Amino acid sequence: MNAPSSATTSPAPSVRDAAEAWESLFRAQVAVMRRLQADPAFRGLGIKEYDVLFTLSGCPESGLRLNELNDHVLLAQSSLSRLVERLERKGLVTRRAAPDDARGILITLTEAGRETQRRIGREHVREIARLFGGALDAEELAELKRLTAKLREHVVENHPL
Amino acid sequence: MNAPSSATTSPAPSVRDAAEAWESLFRAQVAVMRRLQADPAFRGLGIKEYDVLFTLSGCPESGLRLNELNDHVLLAQSSLSRLVERLERKGLVTRRAAPDDARGILITLTEAGRETQRRIGREHVREIARLFGGALDAEELAELKRLTAKLREHVVENHPL
DNA sequence: CCAGAGTACATGCATTTGCATCTACTTTGA
DNA sequence: TCAAAGTAGATGCAAATGCATGTACTCTGG
Question: Does residue B142 sit at the A interface (CB-CB below 8 Å)?
């Protein structure tokens, strides 16, 4: 006997189901990311640098801590530290001591940083739409978003680093 | 008037729908990948190196061309060239001239490479299942796989680099 | 209060990456 | 047929990355 099932309950996933879903998710990410990286919008600023600006743009008034930022980006702590240093040198962000924890650094967008993020963001979003156009309909996009959000949430919640 | 719709036709996605789905997909990938990279399975061999071995393990008898390999991996051509060079030095793959095109290099797993891939792969798959466990049920995993595969296919098909 | 453990970020250094370019081979078209 | 354009992969070099560790601060238990 295999895979017990009923009309209303989805069977527990096998190891294989998870591995295949991950493989597919990962390859899609590679294919899309490769094309996004090639976008002229990222001539002056790498996509990772943009990603940091973007994350800062949608977050608390006062900025983010380095370690919070690090959760969103696939970089070692030291690499992010230096990436932010570069952004500061370019005048796109500021670093100042966190008020409540003297070890912490609070990173904030400068006005120039905010403008740069918006400018690149507009082109970037257009490119995303161009790539996705015709691939999935609105309902499928919503479902993709829901599933990936659920996955991320679960992983973040239940599997600390 | 906005978004014309009927009972059976999903409305055309907005630019925003695509951007949000991508954002969610990407963040999920980051969260999962971060944890996979930390797996002890990748102490001796980086996850990118493993990925190359894995890709080779599931492909034509005779191996893959460097440029074919490059489609699966998020690396510049030159970086992959050197990554493969390292794998060769470790005795995990061999490089030989492609029979039909003297410019090309055919990369093949050695027996050691195949064993290494299997060994790491077993642990890796376990870790994937552990991370995904409880996040999505079998049906949702299948849907996630379907959507990401469709997205990748569309992008690869309609948006050459 | 304080010693020791823990956390946040920075830094030295070796490795990896990407860009630009090079060489060698192949394809195209006049 | 052959010159010009195109493609596959390698390589020099500067930049980015990660690991190990350092410094400075915070938290915890006695």
Answer: yes
Q: Determine contact: A30 vs chain B, CB below 8 A.
A: yes
Give the number of domains in chain B: 1
Expressed as residue numbers, the domain containing A71 is 25-153
Which residue in this structure is represented by tokens 């490119």? Answer: A127
In whole angstroms, what separates CA A47 from the centre of its chain? Answer: 11
DSSP-derived secondary structure letter, A44: S
CATH number, residue A80: 1.10.10.10
For residue A106, give both structure tokens. Answer: 């609070």
Nearest chain A residue to B156, by CA: A31
Token pair in block for residue B140: 């949702």
Burial of B71 (0-12, 13-18, 19+ CB in 10 A): middle
Contact A144, B17 (CB under 8 A): no
Is B38 inside any structural domain?
Answer: no
Answer whether residue A10 is part of any domain: no
How many whole angstroms from its chain centre is CA A123?
Answer: 17
Residue A93 lies in a domain: yes
Q: How far is the CA of B102 from the C1' of C30 (A)?
A: 26
Residue B72 lies in a domain: yes
Tokens 């049906």 found at: B139
| Contact yes or no for A14/B139 (Cβ under 8 A) | no
Q: What is the pLDDT of residues A21-68, one digit of tens each?
A: 999 999 999 999 999 999 999 999 999 999 999 999 998 887 999 999
Amino acid identity, residue B48?
K
What type of residue sits at position A123?
A: E
**CB-based burial of residue A78 (10 Å sphere; 0-12 exposed, 13-18 middle, 19+ buried)?**
exposed
The sign of the CA dihedral A123, A117, A49, A144 is: negative
Name the minimum distance, in Å, from the CA of A112 to any CA of chain B.
Answer: 23
C-alpha span between A123 and A128 (Å, rounded): 9
pLDDT-derived band at B3 (thresholds 50, 70, 90) equals very low
Q: Which of A32, A47, A138 is nearest to B159 (CA)?
A: A32
Does the beta-carbon distance from A151 to B159 stay under 8 Å? no
